[in-house]
């Protein structure tokens, strides 16, 4: 639907449109275990892949909160996490105790957003999508070919090859008529009527606020949106005025006060005036998450923060996306989880096994996303 991507994607990391799930091990080679599971912190739970490729969760102290038993495990959003049951291959939702809040029954399930989650009842290519609430009640019946998560009270839905928008009751607010759409952000959504048309922006009534004129466009963030015209990307304001001249080969939405831009296959960062905070130099980069962007140079990964400064030095062989303030990384023979300062909260040597109570299953493919993982 829109051009979101990671260049030089790290090997061994599972990717989904809504979630980044990564592998990890234990702490200090042996892993932390609480004698009383009921008393360990569950405020922050981080999805990790155990040594047998089953996914579970650890907390911010590196303690195992939910042992590995899923073929896929998403981030906790609004108190629940979408997971794939290892045995049945179906998706459902668990609470922070690891108990099924909504039994595994779907072929694909997205994370909750604004109280509702998109679920698919059939094969990804042919199955229909609908929305459920946190009790598992079907709020919007299975009927759509594709959907996006709710954003600002509306969700984009596709039916018969056209996209429109519905509200949380399932009522059609903007009739399906578009070839491509983005989600609403700051009151506007980028839309494209046909394959050969340009992108413009509509408000929540479907009225054009910015007339179609851009080859590609993306969501507004902090009052600005990246848009492409004459094969170069720049940034527009909510009147459609180009406030940062088109000069980039690609551009991401602002994350804080900085935006990731690409020139000649190298990524750099600019501020809201268009001035570089980091001139293009990175050959690898990922979509910004939680104010942190993973970047790579000379085979080493680090992180740039929302001010456009290199916050965590280039040092990792593999690096994922931040989620709930933490991220999985690998460096030499060490793997672990770091916070936004670069401090390890959990690490171990790769050769060590720290989950001895979990049966090893070598038949599971580490780098293959299960069928019930969130939709792309």
Describe it for me?
It contains no helices and 36 strands. It is mostly beta strands and about 375 residues long. It has one domain: Methylamine Dehydrogenase, Chain H (7 Propeller). Strands 1-2-3-4-5-6-7-8 form an 8-stranded mixed beta sheet, with no helix packed on it. The chain has a 4-stranded antiparallel beta sheet with strand order 9-10-11-12, with no helix packed on it. It is flat and about 55 Å long.
Radius of gyration: 21 Å
Query: What's the helical proportion of residues?
Result: under 10%
Shape: flat
Tell me the structural class: mainly beta
Give the number of helices.
Answer: 0
Largest sheet: 8 strands, mixed
Q: How many strand elements?
A: 36
- Unreliable residue stretches: 1-35, 352-370
* The CATH architecture: 7 Propeller
Question: What number of domains?
Answer: 1
Strand order, sheet with most strands: 1-2-3-4-5-6-7-8
At the first level of CATH, what is the class? Mainly Beta
- CATH domain topology: Methylamine Dehydrogenase, Chain H
Strand content: over 45%
Mean pLDDT: 85
Q: Tell me the distance between the termini.
A: 9 Å
Lay out the secondary structure.
Layout: E1 14-15, E2 20-23, E3 45-49, E4 55-59, E5 64-77, E6 80-85, E7 91-94, E8 100-106, E9 108-109, E10 117-120, E11 129-132, E12 138-144, E13 146-147, E14 155-159, E15 162-166, E16 172-178, E17 180-181, E18 189-192, E19 199-202, E20 208-214, E21 216-217, E22 225-229, E23 232-236, E24 242-248, E25 250-251, E26 259-263, E27 266-270, E28 276-282, E29 284-285, E30 292-297, E31 300-305, E32 310-316, E33 318-319, E34 327-331, E35 334-338, E36 344-349
């Amino acid at each position: 639907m829109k051009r979101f991507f990671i260049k030089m994607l790290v090997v061994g990391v599972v990717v989904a449109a809504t979630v980044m799930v990564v592998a990890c091990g234990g702490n200090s080679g042996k892993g932390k275990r609480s004698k009383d599971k009921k008393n360990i912190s569950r405020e922050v739970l981080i999805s990790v892949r155990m040594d047998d490729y089953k996914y579970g969760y650890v907390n911010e102290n590196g303690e195992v909160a939910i042992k590995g038993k899923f073929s896929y495990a998403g981030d906790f959003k609004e108190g629940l996490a979408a997971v794939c049951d290892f045995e049945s291959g179906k998706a459902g939702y668990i609470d922070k105790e690891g108990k099924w809040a909504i039994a595994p029954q779907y072929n694909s399930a997205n994370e909750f957003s604004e109280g509702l989650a998109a679920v698919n009842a059939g094969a990804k290519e042919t199955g229909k999508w609908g929305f459920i609430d946190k009790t598992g009640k079907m709020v919007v019946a299975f009927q759509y070919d594709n959907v996006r998560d709710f954003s600002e009270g509306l969700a984009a839905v596709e039916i018969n090859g056209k996209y429109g928008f519905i509200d949380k009751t399932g009522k059609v607010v903007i009739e399906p008529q578009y070839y491509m759409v983005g989600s609403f952000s700051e009151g506007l959504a980028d839309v494209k009527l046909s394959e050969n048309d340009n992108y413009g922006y509509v408000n929540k009534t479907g009225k054009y606020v910015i007339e179609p004129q851009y080859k590609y466009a993306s969501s507004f963030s902090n009052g600005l949106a990246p848009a492409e015209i004459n094969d170069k990307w720049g940034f527009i304001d909510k009147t459609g005025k180009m406030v940062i001249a088109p000069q980039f080969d690609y551009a991401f939405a602002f994350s804080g006060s900085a935006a990731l831009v690409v020139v000649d296959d190298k990524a750099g960062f600019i501020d809201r005036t268009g001035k570089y905070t980091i001139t293009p130099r990175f050959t690898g980069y990922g979509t910004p998450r939680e104010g942190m962007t993973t970047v790579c140079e000379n085979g080493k990964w680090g992180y740039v923060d929302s001010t456009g400064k290199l916050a965590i030095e280039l040092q990792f062989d593999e690096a994922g996306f931040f989620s709930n303030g933490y991220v999985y990384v690998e460096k030499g023979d060490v793997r672990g989880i770091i916070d936004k300062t670069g401090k390890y909260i959990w690490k171990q040597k790769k050769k060590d096994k720290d989950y001895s109570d979990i049966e090893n299953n070598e038949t599971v493919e580490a780098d293959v996303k299960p069928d019930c993982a969130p939709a792309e």
